[in-house]
Structure formats: C-alpha cells, structure tokens
Write a structure and sequence with these properties.
Distance between the termini: 39 Å
Oligomer: single chain
Strand content: 25-35%
Radius of gyration: 29 Å
Number of strands: 15
Length: 321
C-alpha cells in the first residue's frame, strides 16, 4: 500500500453481527489496532500487527484447511530413492537359470538418466565388503536377453543379496532392520510397508507375440522368496501404470510404476528381481534402468487425520454454543 504505519489516532473494530457496539470486539474487550495513515506519514516506521479478537477464531478456518488436506493429499510429492542406475549397480545380477536361461549384465548401450552415482542397492561383489552406495561409476543399465527356459512368465534377472545392505533395506522397507549387522550379526526383520517402485525399460524385438509387460519380484523370508508385482490393474496392492518417455539412445523408453507391499517377518535374505510377462520370444536384449523406490500417499491415513481434526472442531463449537 505504500503507507507508513502509525498508532494515532485510535480506532476500534466493531462487534460482528447485527448488534453493533462501537469499540467492542467479539470477546467484549476494547483494543487499539494499527492502521495506515495517508497522505502525511510520520518520520518513524513501525510494523502493524493484526490482532485477533479471540484465539479461538483460528478454528473457523479448520474445515477449509482440512478440505484442502483431503483434496491435495493424493498429489503430495515424495522424493524417490535410486536403487539401481549405474553399471556398478547392475554388476552381480544373476540370470533366470534353467536349461536355456536369460543372459543379463551391465550395459553401456542404453542409459536413460545418465547418472554416475551408485544407488542404494549397489553390491557388485555380492558381499558386504563390496557395497559402495553413493560412490561413482559409469552410467548404464541392465541388459537382459530372454531365454527359452523363462517361457512366457518368469524371473529373468535377480539382484545381488540386499538383506545386509542397510541403505537398501531402509529405502524399500522403512522401519526394517538389516540382517547380520555388527556386533551380533543376527537375522534382521521386515515390517509391513506399502510403497511404489518405478523402473525405466525398453521393449525387445517381437517374434510373433502380442503382449510384453515387465514387473518386479521381491524375494525374502516374509513372502517365501517370491512375490511379483506388475504395473497393471491386477496388482494386489493398487493399480500400476506405464508411461511412454520418448526415445533415448535410439530406443523407445517406458516407465513402469509398480505398487508393492512388504510383509513383516524375520529377515535373512532379500533380493529384487525383474519379472517377465510376455510372449514375444525376443532374440535381442531389452534394457532396464533407473530402478527407484518411493512411498505412496495413504488416503486412509489422510482421511482419519481429517476426521480427527473435524471432530475436535465440532467439540469446540458445541462448547462455544
């Protein structure tokens, strides 16, 4: 407004409602408030303060704030954690096994994000001493070539052991206890948790099929070392999604968003795998990169919080009446 604040002369805020009483606030008290004087300012500058007639006035804004919380809750932004994104991260991954297994390994042919910072799942030597989370290495991806023993459904690639990797376990199952940590080196524990995994992938050559869908496999004590989640409406946690990202390194790129759940239990082993659901029978590799984990909003929790605040507001209003 450009005015300079003064505290003279005195003005009073009238009582709200039809019973107008000059100089009275809603609690019956008389207060002086600051206002802007125009056009002749005083030499000294002061800060005007807005006075509230009754501390309980803030409650009248609660319903509006709660409504905003509920409406915006589904769009809250959460930071994701990289699990696997560099060639070092994808070193030590295993194939599907069997008579004609898939072939897997780190590759520089495709690199979606260009990151050279190792993710939380880094364990290229498949041992505690080789973990180098947050270190630097060459950017790249995981190359996967299908093998006939996989068939149309199976696990085509599996990460190194992660149960004793505290960074990985904290990311994928917050609240869990990593296994075999000093000083006692005993089994750890998983807790119930729901989150989302995302991964970027390319599509291999199609040798006569009509569907291709990659997914995630979580293998640990609590699920009997097998639990697949796919980015479709059949996901047991929540519907997933697939997003087209454009062409990167000459290859059409997609991102799968896959909700998942971890069960509570003893933790001795934990691995993450790439699940394969396709009848393409490809001869050329496809690539997986930028596997990330992030939590998802919990509408139930938001609703309960909103309900609790609204209940308190209703109690307050009843007492005021």
């Amino acid at each position: 407004m450009g005015g300079i604040t003064s505290y003279a002369p005195e003005y009073h805020v009238p009582n709200e409602g039809s019973n107008y009483e000059p100089g009275k606030w809603r609690d019956g008290m008389t207060r002086t408030i600051a206002f802007d004087v125009f056009p002749t300012p005083k030499p000294s500058r002061t800060v005007a303060r807005r006075r509230i007639g009754n501390p309980g006035d803030v409650w009248k804004h609660v319903p509006r704030a709660v409504a905003a919380l509920v409406l915006l809750g589904g769009n809250l932004v959460y930071a994701n954690t990289d699990l696997f994104t560099t060639q070092s991260d994808f070193t030590g991954w295993l194939n599907s096994g069997g008579g004609s297994p898939s072939a897997v390994g780190p590759s520089g042919v495709y690199d979606y994000d260009g990151s050279t910072i190792n993710g939380a799942g880094n364990n290229p030597g498949n041992s505690p001493g080789s973990i180098n989370v947050g270190g630097t290495s060459t950017g790249g991806s995981l190359g996967i070539t299908w093998g006939s023993s996989v068939g149309t459904f199976g696990i085509v690639a599996s990460s190194p052991a992660e149960s004793y990797n505290p960074a990985f376990m904290a990311a994928i199952d917050p609240g869990s206890t990593a296994a075999f940590q000093a000083p006692d080196f005993t089994a750890g524990a998983t807790v119930v948790y729901v989150g989302t995994l995302t991964m970027v992938y390319t599509i291999p050559d199609n040798e006569g099929g009509n569907y291709f869908e990659p997914g995630i496999d979580l293998a640990y004590d609590g699920d009997g070392y097998y639990g697949t989640f796919f980015p479709d409406a059949g996901n047991p946690v929540a519907p997933g999604s697939i997003t087209y990202l454009g062409t990167v390194d000459g290859l059409a790129s997609f991102q799968a968003t896959v909700p998942y759940q971890v069960n509570a239990g003893t933790l001795n082993g934990f691995g993450l795998g790439i699940a394969y659901n396709s009848n393409y029978s490809p001869q050329q590799p496809f690539y997986v990169d930028d596997i990330e984990v992030g939590p998802i909003p919990e509408p139930t929790s938001l609703s309960l919080t909103a309900l609790g605040v609204l209940t308190l507001w209703a109690i307050y209003k009843r007492k005021r009446a």
